[in-house]
Amino acid sequence: MKPESLELIRTFTPWVMSGITLGWIIVVFVLKKTYAKTEDLIAVRQEMTAMHAKVDALPGHEEVTQLRIELSDAKAEIRELRAELKPVNHLAQLLLENELKERNNGNG
């Protein structure tokens, strides 16, 4: 090799190595920003597994439909009971009113 070539290599080697190192740092930084860490993926998988378990524990379409039917039946029964209790409530009010009148007449 010529002495001039060796001088060029000696002069530019640090610059070339610095450029390669800087390029590698940029590549690593971009890759770090682009791809997720393994720990993050594990955490997301655990959360997803927990969500799947919660969703699996929820009632299905058939169960919800059955509950709606039962709720509708219960509402109808409550309406019937309310209609049956109105005369009893009226009678209780009359008895209370009569009792209060007797007390007022007895004291007055």
TrEMBL record:
<keyword id="KW-0812">Transmembrane</keyword>
<dbReference type="Pfam" id="PF10805">
    <property type="entry name" value="DUF2730"/>
</dbReference>
<feature type="transmembrane region" description="Helical">
    <location>
        <begin position="12"/>
        <end position="31"/>
    </location>
</feature>
<keyword id="KW-1133">Transmembrane helix</keyword>
<dbReference type="InterPro" id="IPR020269">
    <property type="entry name" value="Phage_Mu_Releasin"/>
</dbReference>
<keyword id="KW-0472">Membrane</keyword>
<protein>
    <submittedName>
        <fullName>DUF2730 family protein</fullName>
    </submittedName>
</protein>
